[in-house]
Amino acid sequence: MRLGQLARGRRVLAGYWGATVVQVAAIVIDAKILKQASKVTLMPLLWQWTRTQDATPLLQAAVLASAAGDLLLETDLQLAGIAAFAAAHACYLAVFLSRPAQRSWRVLAAYAALWAALIAVLSPGLGSQRVPVAAYALLLTATAVAARWHNPRSGLGGALFLVSDALIALRLAGRDFPGRGALTMSTYAVGQYLLTSGVTTPQDDLTGSGHRR
Asked: Which helix (H) or strand (E) holds 127?
C-alpha cells in the first residue's frame, strides 16, 4: 500500500471514530440534529476507509447498504431500513463464505440457539413486525457465524452487530431502558469496523503468526 494511501486511510479512520464519539455524546445529551447528522456520516466515512484499504466491491457494497439503512431508519421507514441492512448482510455473507475458513458447528449451534431465544423473548411485543424482524435476525445471525468462521476479529464484529440490532429490537418490542441508544450505536460502530477490518487487514496483523490468508 502506498504511503499516501495509508496516511489518508488513517485520517479517514480518525474521522470515523470522531463521528462515533459525537454520535454517542449526542445521544446522551439528546441533541437531535447533531445525533442525526453524525449518524448518517458514519458509514460513508467507513466506506471511504475501505476504499483506502483496497476492499473488494462486495465489502464496499455492504458498507454502502448499511449507510442507506441508517438514512432510511432516520426517516422512520423501518421496513425499508431493515431491507437495506438485509442487503448489507447478504454482501457480508458473500464476502466471508467466499474465503477459506475453519467452520465450527459449535459456533453455528450456539448462534442458532441465541437466535431462537431472542425471537421467543421479543416476538410478543413486535406485533406486525414479528416476521420481518425474525427473518432479518436470521440473516444477521448467519453473518455473525460466517464472520466468526473467518477470523476472531470479524467474529467479534459480527457479535457486536448482533448485540446492536438486538438492542433495537428490544425498543421495538417495548423493552427500552436508559442508555440503550448510546450502547446501540457504540456496538454498531465498533462492530462494523471490526467486520470490515477483519477482511482488509492481513492475517498476520490479526494473529501475529506471520501467516497471510
From this structure: none
